[in-house]
Design goal:
heterodimer, A: alpha+beta, Penicillin-binding protein 2a (Domain 2), 7-stranded mixed sheet, 5-stranded antiparallel sheet, elongated, B: mainly alpha, 3-stranded antiparallel sheet, 13 helices, 4% strand
Chain lengths: 648, 365
């Protein structure tokens, strides 16, 4: 039995080897499933999910009080997963009836390729309902979001608008990443061929909402600004225009109006030009408003004093090969008179004395020729050439704001430095950005850029600007009843490349100023480009300015009479904001406690400094409680409690 | 006798558990695909269940038929098989996925190559069993079965189904080995056939890709390595206890052939390592018991038949599991009793029935 024994030996061998070999796959499975599992599992999770480009719900844009400026509302969209469609022809026919689309278009969409496809986005609710009722395999309705601007035209040039999937203009564009909600787009399970299996309920159930952007804009002030600007723009047949309201102390932009307006809900019905934010992108020669900068610079340099007088050539003055003209012939004018009457000749004399180098230096100190960095797409840099290339005529022209280019934003910010005691602030439009989970992503604080001029110079130039709005000034139409204001008119000739020189008919009229002038809260600029009927800034822009400032001061409850001329030290009514100067309530009774409530720490300490008492301070912000109470005798140690200021 | 019953019971239990579990897993793995392609999530499940009933009947019938009957039928069967394999390649055959492997009879399509495996076992058992004395000494007697074996292998390879062809060749060699053929002849056979196999692999682009994918699946992740990577991910997703029946994601059309050749990956994902160990363990039971039955066989034919069918089931399970787990290059081999496919199921059940028939007539060696 030689054969049998060998065969049996081999069988026995097989009986051991075959089961032993089965241990190979078993061990391999153990490795994959137990030892190497974590890594594999992660890979599996990653590749089972496919990101489908579905717009997540966009975060809202709100004003500084939380009022909505741009919101996203859910709207249904109809999609198909093409492999799941059973009868393409019938499906297309039924859908074409339900959605009011051409059958051919639908067939085309259903026919090309595999996987997921949008059939019609943002349909009417009734259409979506019809589609849902049809209950066609492979066809579904998904809620998407649609951008809606509840205030219609309001702040449109700041907000911009959203195209099919992303922000195209304004804040919607510049803060796209934050608003759209990060990269956490919706995901669905996918299969090997890259299309979705899961039929109608495959969407990630937790929606990803973008961050909330809170602007510094105040909806009401924005409304005042737009109302006044639009009315004037229409009445005057202006080409374009802008108005900016800035919070003096901080550089916050409270309103930016841009003319002509547009409704972002129907942006496709407007032309491209309407979308421009005129305030940040339109570059113009400022004209006479710039004399404020010229004279402030000369004062700061100590070249002249307010009382110095200039001979203004009776309306005509020759510089090199050019003749400078005034609108009315003036003889001798003080520095203040030059600003008040807006004499080009006077400004020229000041500017030439200042010299081109120092002129350029001051222009730059006031922030001209550089972008403010506001978060709006397409901000202009303006035009400020190197002084070394200026001729004498260039310097003369620049003295009264011709031959240099600014944006409205640069100009209002420069004048705001004067209102703010010489400190140039960084203007800003976005207060904070808060994620959908409530986490603060970004919070803006007021930021100083640099000191442009000293506080003393700022006060001097303010006094001069007050006279502009006075009865004798060129800007008397900017008077706001009950408030003292400071400002400057501007009427600039526009350069026409057609005529290769300055146009006799195209002007940019403007008015810039701040109020109340003794403790400024607002700095406001109104620019009207090519008004048709009247061209003077004092006539065209000043009333718009007065309307915006009057309504805004009233809205902010800055009480009239607070800083009327001649009563600078009158007791301030409650609720008045005191900026910069310590003003004391009940100041007449020095040996009893003054009312410190509402003052900042520095102001309160200024008051208490005269009282020879110790001070114990708790907290930060403004004074909310004090011991002893107002009217009581002064204690050796006065305790004051402070809380962060709450904006009214 | 008692011993025999015990052995038979173990084999039957293993086979039935594998079949039931396989049918359940087929439902889990194919419901989505079936729902999409046939509008009936239970399409593959129902068919497999029907085949399962048929397969059990075949197994019982085969176990009752004395296995000696197959010895007499061996020659006609092998001739019939070769004729049918040739006929499949004629226009009579049914083509699917660029391969002509089936005969269509009404709604059922039969894969001749599956039955060929069993017929080759029976034929070789008869031929080698009758020459049990000479096999060890005279290599020349191997020539005749080798010619027939090569004929079958080439016909199957022409379908083309290289995986099954190589498997049948391997099965034949396994039987030569068990029958006691000299190791020299077997080694010579392996050396002689390797250039041919290499040629057949290199001739077809996709086979080269499969080899590359096997060697480095992660590199070929988006392409030819995709299936293997999906298989790995399915196993990894399952972990020790699995995601639960029906809880796997890979079968959502991620894992190609999830209800046929790669069903073990679905087991790995949904039933975890525990499930995989049970399935592999059941094959271990069948293999161990099968070899026992062979050793207890009353005659050479019975021994070689039992060893052959055991090899057929065990080797196929081994190769399938190793392929799915990335230990061998991708081959189109189903998991016996488990994968979807009527031909495979019927063949495996018939093999198990014959094994039982040998067992019942066997005794302690």
């Amino acid at each position: 039995m030689r054969w049998n024994s060998r065969a049996h030996l081999r069988l026995r061998l097989l009986g051991v080897v075959l089961p032993a070999l089965l241990l190979l796959p078993l061990g391999r499975a153990f490795y994959l499933q137990v030892l190497d599992r974590a890594e594999l599992k992660e890979l599996a999770v990653r590749q089972n999910r496919m990101v489908v480009k579905v717009q997540p719900r966009r975060g809202p844009i709100v004003d500084r009080n939380g009022q909505p400026l741009a919101i996203s509302v859910p709207v249904p969209s109809v999609y198909a997963v093409r492999e799941e469609i059973q009868e393409k022809g019938k499906t297309a026919l039924l859908l074409s009836q339900a959605l009011g689309m051409k059958k051919g278009v639908l067939l085309n969409k259903l026919g090309n390729g595999n996987g997921f496809v949008w059939l019609k986005r943002r349909v009417a609710p009734e259409e979506a309902e019809k589609v849902a009722d049809l209950d066609l395999p492979g066809v579904g309705v998904q809620e998407e979001s649609r951008r809606y601007y509840p205030n219609l035209e309001l702040a449109a040039s700041v907000l911009g608008f959203v195209g099919v999937d992303k922000g195209l203009e304004g804040i919607e564009c510049s803060l796209e990443d934050q608003l759209k909600g990060g990269s956490s787009t919706r995901v669905l399970k996918r299969d090997a061929k890259g299309w979705a299996y899961t039929p109608l309920d495959f969407w990630d159930s937790s929606p990803t909402v973008g961050a909330t952007v809170q602007l510094t804009l105040d909806r009401s002030i924005q409304f005042f600004a737009e109302q006044a600007l639009n009315a004037a723009g229409q009445k005057l047949g202006a080409k374009s225009g802008s108005a900016i309201v800035m919070e003096t102390e901080t550089g916050r932009i409270l309103a930016i109006a841009s003319y002509p307006p547009f409704n972002p809900n129907e942006f496709s019905r407007y032309r491209q030009e309407n979308f421009r934010n005129q305030a940040s992108s339109f570059i113009f020669e400022p004209g006479s408003t710039f004399k404020v900068i010229t004279i402030a610079s000369a004062l700061e340099e100590g070249i002249f004093d307010e009382k110095d007088i200039f001979f203004c050539g009776n309306g005509s003055y020759r510089v090199a090969d050019a003749t400078i003209n005034d609108n009315l012939p003036y003889g001798w004018l003080t520095l203040k008179g030059i600003l008040q009457k807006s004499s080009n000749i006077g400004a020229t004399k000041v500017g030439l004395e200042l010299g081109r180098e120092r002129f350029e230096e001051y222009a730059r100190r006031f922030g001209l020729g550089e972008k403010t960095g506001i978060l709006l797409p397409g901000e202009g840099r303006g035009m400020l050439r190197k002084a070394s290339s200026w001729t004498q005529v260039d310097t003369a022209a620049a003295s009264f704001g011709q031959g240099i280019g600014v944006t409205a934003l640069q100009m209002v910010n420069a004048v705001n430095a004067i209102a703010n005691g010489g400190l140039l602030m960084r203007p800003y439009l976005v207060e904070k950005i808060v994620s959908s989970s409530g986490e603060i992503i970004q919070m803006r604080r007021p930021q100083e850029i640099r000191r442009a001029i000293s506080p003393e110079t700022a006060v001097k130039i303010t006094r001069m600007m007050e006279s502009v709005v006075g009865p004798e000034g060129s800007g008397y139409r900017a008077r706001v009843p009950g408030y003292e204001t400071a400002g400057k008119t501007g009427t600039a000739q526009k350069f026409s490349s057609k005529q290769n020189g300055y146009s006799e008919s195209s002007f940019v009229a403007s008015f810039v100023g701040f109020a109340p002038s003794r403790s400024p809260v607002l700095t406001v600029l109104v620019v009207i480009d090519e008004p048709k009927e009247n061209t003077y800034g004092g006539v065209v822009a000043a009333p718009v300015w007065a309307e915006i400032v009057g309504k805004t001061l009233n809205y902010l409850q800055i009480e009239p009479g607070a800083s009327e001329p001649g009563r600078p030290d009158a007791p301030l009514p409650k609720g008045t904001r005191v900026a910069g100067r310590p003003d004391v309530k009940n100041a007449g009774a020095p040996m009893s406690m003054p009312d410190l409530k509402g003052l900042t720490l520095r102001e309160a300490l200024g008051v208490l400094a005269d009282m020879e008492c110790g001070v114990k301070i708790e907290g930060t912000g403004v004074v909310v409680r004090q011991s002893p109470e107002p009217g009581e005798g002064v204690a050796p140690v006065v305790r004051i409690g402070l809380m962060p200021r709450i904006r009214t | 006798m008692k011993r025999t019953l015990k052995i038979n019971a173990a084999v039957i239990l293993a086979v039935v558990v594998l079949m039931v579990l396989g049918t359940i897993m087929i439902y889990s793995a194919s419901a989505v695909k079936a729902g999409r392609d046939f509008g009936d999530g239970g399409f593959f499940f129902k068919r497999q269940a029907l085949f399962g009933v048929a397969a059990l009947s075949v197994m019982i019938a085969m176990s009752l038929i004395p296995y000696g009957a197959w010895e007499r039928l061996a020659a006609p069967l092998i001739i019939l098989t070769i004729v049918l394999l040739a006929a499949v390649l004629s226009p009579l055959g049914h083509t699917s996925n660029n391969a002509t492997r089936w005969f269509r009879i009404g709604p059922v399509s039969l894969q001749v190559a599956e039955f060929a495996k069993l017929v080759v076992v029976i034929y070789l058992a008869r031929y080698l069993g009758r020459r049990s004395e000479e096999v060890g000494s005279d290599s020349r007697i191997l020539i005749r079965p080798l010619v027939l074996l090569v004929t079958v292998v080439v016909l199957v390879a022409c379908e083309p189904d290289l995986g099954t062809a190589i498997f049948i060749g391997l099965l034949g060699c396994g039987m030569f080995f068990v029958a006691g053929a000299p190791l020299r002849s077997l080694a010579g056979l392996a050396i002689a056939s390797s250039p041919l196999i290499a040629f057949l692999i290199l001739k077809q682009e996709f086979r080269v890709q499969r080899i590359q994918a096997f060697l480095n699946p992660w590199k070929e992740y988006e392409g030819s390595g995709f299936q293997l990577v999906q298989s790995f991910l399915a196993f990894g997703d399952g972990g020790v206890f699995g995601t639960g029946l029906g809880g796997g994601k890979s079968k959502l059309l991620f894992l190609p052939e999830s209800h046929t050749d790669f069903i073990l990956a679905v087991v790995g994902e949904e039933l975890g390592f525990v499930g995989v160990a049970v399935v592999i363990g059941l094959y271990g039971v069948i293999v161990t018991k099968g070899i026992q039955i062979a050793r207890r066989a009353p005659d050479s034919f019975g021994m070689l038949t039992a060893a052959g069918v055991t090899l057929m089931i065990g080797l196929q399970a081994l190769i399938n599991a190793m392929v799915v787990l990335g230990l061998l290059p991708t081959k189109g081999l189903p998991l016996p009793f488990f994968s979807y496919g009527g031909s495979s199921l019927l063949t495996s059940a018939a093999a198990a029935g014959i094994l039982m028939s040998v067992s019942t007539r066997g005794s302690e060696p």
